[in-house]
């Protein structure tokens, strides 16, 4: 059934009417989700829940629901799930120091999660449940259901905006609509941040500790005793794989400091261990200072590498912005709106699109509404050749930059932004494959997989949806390669067959070089596939 009201408004409206019990209850519950894995720093719903628990003089309990079915439905990658569990285990330990239990429920059937959560609240005689909003439509509907069930039981329900710096709905067009174009959105976004409304950049306080007595109460004691599972879908990553993206707060703060303050190395392969890159620094400026000029270099280590932490909510987007804010003379602080901050705004923008166009062309399919697509450009006749898709996924296309990107994705679960764009555009425009196949594949591989950003990135490359790249902009993989990887370090690292190649041949190896080194010949001729894409975008009926 399709709701008449947008799912986000419905949730906020329903939550407004849910009142907490008047009679005494015995706890307040914070429901931590996959995107807000922070127990101390700057978690809005957690802070609110803690303040409520303190005022009512009852223990605070943290709940996490693991749902294998949900992870499959969202194409969550093993790396992202593993990263979640590793962070949860740390969070459980750190909360215990404050006598706050973290309890995980593993629920195989997604549909029954609301029931399970409400039974848990009843069991704990909870005054209220608090959570940060997840903007995906299924999640909004689930939470609306929970609100209604909580209301029937006299349990309060509070859902807070936390994922974005500026929450969806806070900046709107003159017609009070969600922005569909990034540039004006970003201007309004910056304006509101600098309008001294403390809410957007507030640093939400840490939770208060529970009384030690909580350990003596059987109902709560058992919650401390339940461990966080080490695996939910039967896979386990090896230690080497885990080291590529460590879960500790110490690592995270090193990564942030390294980006903001440490001097940048002149050349460093970005796709390899991000922390090793901090070891030697030779250039004069910090990474953020050279970000504008060098962020498109896949062969350098110039971007922040914070996306896995931001996607999991291990760090808040607010605190990333705060960390960049210079003091002005009178002590007031301003967001400078530099290039890196604009990328954080892109992240917010895509969440706004997700929340604001629940059944619009941009995200209709990602929502699984099954209503068909209303964007005519998406009706292009495709050339889905299964063997080409497989070659793209495994990095065997014969286009070195695409192959390096796809192999990097497989090996690291992370990919530089420019390389994501090159790989995505190659799939949709050179191979004429449905962008949703690529979107799903990225989600299944990325440690930072996020529906809003991934869908937004894919639709940009596919020239569908809102504010996307014009259809006639078709990357030439060879030219892109020499711009994104001028040293060739990125390709040589991930495509070992080409390690001995120097100069322009690396970006476009001749047939004889490819054959000699055992590297595949190109699976398409770019000029021909470019011409085909142009023809079909102009006239979907053309060959
Ligand atoms: P930085 O350049 O340091 O940027 C800082 C932060 O800003 C990032 O961590 C990220 O949170 C945000 N950001 C940067 N660029 C973008 C962007 N274009 N769109 C939205 N947010 C951005 N990002 C994800 O977090 N998850 C995804 O699933 C995802 N899928 C993508 C798929 C495609 C096809 C494309 C083209 C881009 C995708 N991105 C995604 C955006 C971007 O590639 C990554 O956020 C970025 O590469 C992460 O590296 P970083 O942390 O060093 O970024």
Automatic annotation (TrEMBL):
Q: Which organism is it from?
A: Mycena sanguinolenta
Query: Would the keyword Lyase be found if you checked this record's keyword annotation?
Result: yes
* One Pfam family per UniProt: FAD_binding_7
The Photolyase/cryptochrome alpha/beta domain covers which part of the protein?
Answer: 28-165
Protein name, as recorded? Deoxyribodipyrimidine photo-lyase
The terms describing its cellular component in GO are: cytoplasm; nucleus
Single GO BP term: circadian regulation of gene expression
**How is the cofactor bound here?**
Binds 1 FAD per subunit.
Cofactors named for this entry: FAD
Keyword Nucleus part of the UniProt annotation: no
Spell out the SUPFAM superfamilies in the cross-references.
Cryptochrome/photolyase FAD-binding domain, Cryptochrome/photolyase, N-terminal domain
Single GO MF descriptor: DNA binding
